[in-house]
Amino acid sequence: MRAVVWHGRGDVRVEEVAQPPDPGPEEVKVAVEWCGICGTDLEEWRSGPRLVPVGDPHPVTGRQAPLILGHEVSGRIAEVGPGVSELHEGDLVALDALIHCGECWWCRRHQVTLCPQLAAIGLQADGGLAEAVTVPAQMCVQVPDGVGADTAALAEPVAVAVRALRRGRLSFNESLVVLGAGMIGIASLVVGRSMGAAPIVVADPIASRRELARRLGADPVLDPRDPDFLELARDATEGRGADVAVDAAGSRDSGPLALAVVRPGGRAVVVGLPSHPAAVDLFAFATGEKELIGSLSHVWDEDFAAAVRLLADGVLTADQVIAARISLEETIERGFASIESTELPGVKIHVNPRS
Q1: pLDDT in tens, 97-129
Q2: 66: cis peptide before it, omega within 30°?
């Protein structure tokens, strides 16, 4: 079969690979319908290895490079292994993507995102930028009727937003500021709207992304480079500052900005992964009794299942955010090479491995 394989920094190839193994006990084989390209994929291509194991196999998956990329996956069950009873051939599923040891202190407390040996398909195991993938059955969340496979492939980034806002303890009628209007920022906007946040301020330096956020319910939209940004954001939140801010940008400045824009006693959630350390004003942090909260990925039966339900409720559709639908063969030239373009009409590129 054809797949997008990471070999090294700047060396990602579309090539012929072996079919995934037949599913073992409690496993399924999934025929991939759509796979989104994530910023993490881009970083591994451009400046990796950051997460892909090289030299030594991952302790849980036993895999190392070369590996098939892709972790934002929807597909149909093609084959079920022994012991799988709740999934059947033809079922449309979205893949939670995470693999954890199941034995450590954190896993036993159902805090799987904190597992010291956490892995994910597309990074530490073969992923969904391929015609098919074999995964643990628990990873598959069934998609309700009426939800398209392209929309189902948004479940992973929406689940990241669900977890970030759960970590931030967002409550009905609280104000929300989202920094960054890429896929995670847009997902934070629509999830926050579904949770009753008001107002919701979205900030991004790219005008097309601000306009997308406006169409999806942000009010107001701001440019974080505006020298009056903090004042404008506070004005929009009744002069106090935001109850909750989400840093979905992951830049050197966006984390400190999220902390600055929340009110005294407010909560700033960092979900974007910055490449460089950031300076934080700890005096203002302490005297304002603010909270700085980290958020990573999602938990399958809490955040991911909720994301699938939200997509079934229509909080977001693929047509609202997808900039391009491309074939597997176009992944590098039209996908990786253009994902950060300011000219794109959306914030997500989806790959159809079967086109």
Answers
A1: 999 999 999 999 999 999 999 999 999 999 999
A2: yes
- The domain segmentation of the chain, as residue ranges, is 2-154+316-352, 157-294
What's CA 95's distance to the chain center, in Å? 12
CATH 1.20.1250.10 fits 157-294, yes or no: no
Q: What is the C-alpha to C-alpha distance for residues 181 and 202, in angstroms, rounded to an integer? A: 7
Q: Is the pTM of this model over 0.85?
A: yes
Mean pLDDT value across the chain: 96
pLDDT tens for each residue of 314-336? 999 999 999 999 999 999 999 98
pLDDT, residue 341, reads: 67
CA distances from 198 to 75, 184, 192, 268 (A): 35, 19, 8, 16
Mean pLDDT over 31-56 rounds to 95
From 3.90.180.10, 3.40.50.150, 3.80.10.10, 3.30.70.100, which CATH number describes the 2-154+316-352 domain?
A: 3.90.180.10
Q: Residue 89: pLDDT above 90?
A: yes
pLDDT band at 254 (very low <50, low <70, confident <90, very high): very high
155-167 and 183-194 helices, crossing angle to 10°? 60
3-state secondary structure the chain: CEEEEEEECCEEEEEECCCCCCCCCCEEEEEEEEEECCHHHHHHHHHCCCCCCCCCCCCCCCCCCCEECCCEEEEEEEEECCCCCCCCCCCEEEECCEECCCCCHHHHCCCHHHCCCCEEECCCECCCCECEEEEEHHHEEECCCCCCHHHHCCHHHHHHHHHHHHHCCCCCCCCEEEECCCHHHHHHHHHHHHCCCCCEEEECCCHHHHHHHHHCCCCCEECCCCCCHHHHHHHHCCCCCEEEEEECCCCCCHHHHHHHHEEEEEEEEECCCCCCCCCCCHHHHHHCCCEEEECCCCCHHHHHHHHHHHHHCCCCCHHHHEEEEEEHHHHHHHHHCCCCCCCCCCCEEEEECCC
Percent of the chain with pLDDT over 70: 99
